[in-house]
Amino acid sequence: MSTKVPNPTRITVDSDNAVSTFELTTTAAEETECAAPECHHAPAETHDLRLNLPMRKGLDIITELEVGFCSLECAQAFKQLFWLAPADDGDAGFQVLYIAANPLVAEVVVEDDSSEPIHVLGEDFEAAASRANEILSEYHAAHDGERNPEIAESYSVSYHPLGSVVSPTPGR
Amino acid sequence: MSTQEPDGIDELHVTTLFDDTTLEVLPAWNDQNECSAPDCHNMVDRRNDLRLNGVAMRDANYHRTVEFEFCSLECAKEFSDLGLLHNEDVPDGYGFESILIPPEPIHATATIRDPEFSEITALGMTFSVVGERLMSQLSLLHEDRGGFANPDGVLDYSITFGHL
C-alpha cells in the first residue's frame, strides 16, 4: 500500500559524461565522502559545500539526496556530470539523480576578522543564502554573541556561479 | 466562558507601566497594514521584516504571543522601550491581562551593492531569527529582480547586526 521512499546512503551510479561508474555517498552516510567521482576526502568542514539532488522516478521527484564536497573544484567536477543513474536498475527505486544546472557559491567574509572567506554552496540562491545564514549563526554562537551585549558584527556575502570562483577553497 | 482570541482584532487599548499613559496599539496584519507603534499611522513596508512578538499573559502565566510590526527601526525602538503593557480590554475579552515586550531586540541590515545600494532590514529577538528573516527577504528580492541573470540583482551585499 505505501510506497517505500528510497533513502540510500551509498549508491553505485553511472555517468554518461564521465564514462564512469562510481560510488556516491550522501551526507546521511556514517562515513561521508566527497561526492565527486574517485575522491575519497571527507567533505569540507570550515566551508559548507553541499548540494541537494532531486531523485526522480518517471516524472515524479521522489525525494532529495544531499551530498557534500571537499572543495569547490570537486563540486565543479561533479556539476559537469549533469545527471546520474543507478548502476543497478533492479530495485534502486529511482531512475535519475539530477544535478542543479547553475549552483551558486556564496562567499562569506567576516569583517574585522582576518580569517579566510568561507564558501557556501547551494543549488539556487535560496539554498545558498539559507546555508550562509547557518554559517553566520554558528560563527555568532562560537563567539558568544548572544551573551555579548555589544554585538555589532558585519559580514559581506557575494554570490558567484560555481566555476567562476577563482580562489581555491582554502583549509580543506 | 469562551475565550476570545485576539486574532483579527484591529487595536488594543493598553496602559504603560511606567507613566500610566493609555495608548492604542495595533497588532501586526491589521486591516490597514499600519505600524504597531502608538500614534504612528504609517504603513509597514514589507520589503523589510520588522516584526516583534509580545508575550501575552494571564494571571502571570504565559498565554500566547501577539505579533507587532513596524514601519521603521525608530518605531520598533519606541515600542520596545514600553516594556510591559496592561490590556485595558480584559473584561471584554482577548483573554489576557498584560503584554510583555522582550528587551533588546536584534536588528540586521543588508546593504546590497546594486547601483542604488538598496537596503533591507530585519528585526527579531535572536540572531538566528533575524538572519533567517533577512535571508528570506533577500531571496524574495532576488526572484523579483529576475534572479541570477540580472547583474544588478542581489549578488553582493554586506550585513550588519546590532541591538535596537
Key descriptive features of the protein:
heterodimer, A: about 170 residues, alpha+beta, six-stranded antiparallel β-sheet, three-stranded antiparallel β-sheet, 2 helices, about 35% strand, elongated, B: about 160 residues, 2 domains, nine-stranded mixed β-sheet, 9 strands, about 15% helix
Write the layout of secondary structure elements.
The complex is a heterodimer of chains A (172) and B (164).
Chain A: E1 10-15, E2 20-25, E3 50-57, E4 60-68, H1 72-79, E5 83-86, E6 96-98, E7 104-110, E8 118-122, H2 125-142, E9 154-161
Antiparallel strand pairs in A: 1-2, 1-5, 3-4, 3-6, 5-6, 7-8, 7-9
Chain B: E1 12-16, E2 22-25, E3 49-58, E4 61-69, H1 73-80, E5 84-87, E6 98-100, E7 106-112, E8 119-124, H2 127-144, E9 156-163
Parallel strand pairs in B: 3-8
Antiparallel strand pairs in B: 1-2, 1-5, 3-4, 3-6, 5-6, 7-8, 7-9
Structure description:
The complex is a heterodimer of chains A (172) and B (164). Chain A is α+β, with helices and mostly antiparallel strands. Helices cover 15% and strands 33% of the residues of chain A. Chain A is built from two helices and nine strands. Chain A binds chain B through residues 102, 104, 111, 125-126, 129-130, 132-133, 136-137, 140-141, 145-146, 149, 151-161, and chain B through 104, 106, 126-128, 131-132, 134-135, 138-139, 142-143, 147-148, 154-163.
